């Protein structure tokens, strides 16, 4: 009994996102269903480090929940994996201090975004990478990434539908991109991210890679604090919640 | 108008196999549905190089069909890809002689089978590789592969439910396996394959890799001509119809 922290992975393809919604298949919903069964009908609420949208994947999402059941860590892991659907996998379960909070205690989050950068689409990657058939200038995108690192007001790069109150200042510790085997991998590591922020950033970086904008536009766009000055939010299916770090 | 040969790829995960079945989603069914729509309700039958079971993928399946429509090759490719679901992709369309037959004219077929050989499963590969957590002796498996090459009666390695009449003698031109990044890839290239043959062969090769059998058992097993002397047919989702060659 006590509070348990779980690191989980999921394939976002067949979920309507992380957060519970009535009559929809969600990650939270599937995990809570298993916990309810294990607790003989008692509702057990899980708290996640962050929500992910429909189609977004996770390699290292973290959740916590409280239980009165006397099960040790490896027992929890086995029991959960045995009952969860095959698109959710529990990597580890750890008993933590009752004060631990999967959302409030986060000190760093990391997201990766994958682009399949070749002319022909790849059927087997259609749910796991964004297919982008045009050539990209990697150096320009890397240069643009440099401008993103540091503490900035990211209003321009956040969904106008964002419900979060408070300021939109966040610190990005690392923004980078690399190219290998026709794949571009974007890496963003920071104190926190606004709603849709990574997907809007990638969209603008691709504009820069194509020469539609210059790397030096980044500070100007940040300064505008206006979502309307940048283009569309890129598709969800190339995005991975990669890692969550606690203090 | 005339006869058209198409090379197609599909992700077998969400299909009940290649062949049309009433009220089931199949590869043949989806393609014929698109062709029927293009031909204003007229049924157009497609012929495939081979059938694949539910869960089996294809990188290079070949089909043919006849049409009275005046569309050139690239027009066919575009029209089909625009209307097909996103788990089928047409790689190429070629106008062929009216005598060409996608099944009867095959001179060589190639199948690959992928194993994820690490302790922990990988969620993102669950539909694309068979997860095998035990260590494998690659040299022994390679040695066993040598015994498979050549012309043999493969009755032992064919489903007892096989409906094909006639002899079970087939020629394997290449049987091999390689290990890279925790993945084992089996390659089989031959004149033809019996029902479930590749999946039964891989199952026996894994027995050999684990030391449950010896490479020298292969000629003995072939000699028995009895499906019951070998173990289960391995899962479909690691199998890929890789390439079909015509004379």
From TrEMBL, chains A, B:
SUPFAM superfamilies referenced in this protein's UniProt entry, alphabetically? Pseudouridine synthase
Please tell me whether the keyword Acetylation is annotated for this protein.
no
Q: Pfam families under this entry?
A: PseudoU_synth_1
Q: Indicate yes or no for the key word tRNA processing.
A: yes
- Can you state the subunit structure given in the record? Homodimer.
Q: Which family does it belong to?
A: Belongs to the tRNA pseudouridine synthase TruA family.
List the protein's name.
tRNA pseudouridine synthase A
Naturally occurring in which organism (per UniProt): Oceanobacillus caeni
- What lineage is on file? Bacteria, Bacillati, Bacillota, Bacilli, Bacillales
């Amino acid at each position: 009994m006590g509070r348990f922290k779980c690191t989980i992975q999921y394939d976002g393809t067949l979920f309507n996102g992380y957060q519970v919604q009535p009559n929809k298949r969600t990650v939270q919903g599937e995990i809570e269903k298993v916990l309810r069964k294990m607790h003989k009908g008692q509702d057990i609420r899980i708290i996640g480090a962050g929500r992910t949208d429909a189609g977004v994947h996770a390699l290292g999402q973290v959740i916590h929940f409280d239980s009165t059941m006397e099960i040790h860590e490896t027992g929890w892991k086995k029991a959960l994996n045995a009952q969860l659907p095959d698109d959710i996998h529990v990597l580890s379960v750890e008993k933590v201090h009752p004060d631990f909070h999967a959302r409030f205690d986060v000190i760093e989050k990391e997201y990766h975004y994958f682009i399949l950068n070749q002319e022909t689409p790849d059927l087997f990657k259609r749910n796991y990478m964004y297919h982008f058939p045009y050539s990209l200038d990697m150096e320009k995108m890397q240069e643009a990434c440099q401008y993103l690192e540091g503490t900035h007001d990211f209003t321009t790069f956040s969904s106008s539908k964002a419900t979060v109150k408070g300021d939109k200042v966040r610190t990005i510790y690392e923004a980078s991109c690399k190219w290998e085997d026709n794949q571009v991998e974007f890496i963003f590591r920071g104190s926190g991210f606004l709603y849709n922020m990574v997907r809007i950033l990638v969209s603008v970086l691709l504009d820069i890679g194509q020469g539609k904008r210059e790397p030096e536009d980044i500070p100007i766009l940040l300064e505008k604090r206006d979502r309307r000055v940048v283009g569309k939010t890129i598709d969800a299916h190339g995005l991975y919640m990669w890692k969550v770090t606690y203090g």
